[in-house]
Amino acid sequence: MNANLFAALQGAFPADLDGCAIECADGPSLGLRYSWRDLERGSAMLANLLLSLDLPAGSRIAAQTAKSVEALMLYLAVLRAGYVYLPLNPAYQAAELDFFLRDAEPAVLVCAGANFGWASKLAFLAGTRYVFSLNEDRSGSLLQRAASMSDEHSIAERADNDLAAIVYTSGTTGRSKGALLSHANLLSNARTLKDLWGWRIDDVLIHTLPIFHVHGLFVASHGALLAGAKMIWFNKFEPRAVIARFAEATVLMGVPTLYLRMLGEAALTPAACAPMRLFISGSAPLLLDTFTEWRRRSGQKTILERYGMSETLMLTSNPYRALDGDRLGGTVGPAVPGVEVRVSKDGERLCAPGEIGAIEVRGPNVFAGYWRMPEKTQAEFSADGWFKTGDVGFCDANGYYSIVGRSKDLIISGGFNVYPAEIEGYLNELDGVAESAVIGLPHADFGEAVVAVLVAKPNQSPDGDALIAKLKRQIAGFKVPKQVFIVEELPRNAMGKVQKNRLREQYRAWFA
Ligand code: AMP
Description:
Elements: H1 5-11, E1 20-24, E2 33-35, H2 36-52, E3 60-64, H3 69-81, E4 84-87, H4 94-104, E5 108-111, H5 116-125, E6 130-133, H6 141-146, E7 163-168, E8 178-182, H7 183-196, E9 204-207, H8 214-227, E10 230-233, H9 239-244, E11 251-254, H10 256-263, H11 270-273, E12 278-281, H12 288-297, E13 304-309, E14 313-317, E15 340-345, E16 349-350, E17 357-362, H13 374-380, E18 387-395, E19 401-406, E20 411-413, E21 416-418, H14 420-429, E22 433-443, E23 447-456, H15 464-474, E24 483-487, H16 500-507
Helix pairs in contact: 2-3, 4-5, 7-8, 10-12
The structure holds adenosine monophosphate.
């Protein structure tokens, strides 16, 4: 049997190929409706274009484009032609693109027309053979060339372990690494989530996440495609426009920042949310405040928080069905079926319930390794095949996991471990604090000193010293920040993750 992921996705297309698969809700294609047949034909023509280039087996096809349905079709075309898809954040500038081109050596680069000059120069220097342009408005050489191709294409035969995509990690704690994902990694996780989250053919997904990252490209798109469900497609996130489409939708996937921004809209009411069956959040921790406030404002719709990463796809999820348990704020839920998760102490023993340790995982969803980094790959897997996620957390007596931070963000102050998420939890509860990031800074006496960077609630100006004094009454002294900085906003990447490396850099010399 062909293990090509595209074969499984295509096999799930509804019988009526003329039905609407994707409706564009913004941008230059606003109002355009793509049928399932359009997806089939468009991806076939693009696949035939790739085949006409006579590329070596295993070629990487890099895409650094704006979000559009055609960009999604390019992803599908790469799968069905049997090449390896390499999505890149369109915000990357020349130095960043140069790194990815030299590291991954793609045979083809598809970029925005506006960047074609500098991007193609870098690509050709790095050995890339072909550069095409693709713009949000469906212009560019990629579609021009594909227009003369046949719309019939038979899907390339692929085995389970053949490579389907390389996704570079977001690099919030170091150099970006290319995670190697196989057809079987992607398909097993997509099938698991389809069952777990109750996807149905009559679902309608609001797709408003970027498609250069695991969340939007795989979790969201595969979910809808594998269910034969329609997508309402936003190229950008605009809270009011998204809420307005709840009326015709059933599922939304977002990062916490998106939920926070929708909470700022008066249009977010129980009536507006009534048609929606499922709100999912992931990619970064969902604040308890956001979780609770969403439930109140939406008429008791509880956000389902899940946890995963580029290297492993989705690992844990709060329950979908009430009979499987409650969705608990501040937790990321139990392991998803078929995926093993454990918490270990120094790689030597398993932690007891509630005890904090390193999260390790195993399963058909876990990647094969990092692109051209055999030592790094070996170092990140235990001898018995568990992948060390680099996340620190614990599991409670009911099997629900909570993440307390990245191991690289762990602070060791005066020999004591301080878990940033714990301190952030206390800080966020204090008057006037909207959100916080706790980091460690080099310190002569303590090795690292705990400091907090805070964003104030609108029209409030909390006093750093008073907050420190309050915390001293709540938690052990070694955990209390020695210094509080108040800023307008925390630096975040496109997926809403706080970039603590940038904060550490900014304040590095504070105690020098
Ligand atoms: P990425 O590979 O860019 O998707 O980043 C994966 C990392 O995001 C994980 O290792 C976690 O540190 C973090 N992450 C993802 N989902 C959650 C969540 N629900 N809560 C807390 N952290 C999360």
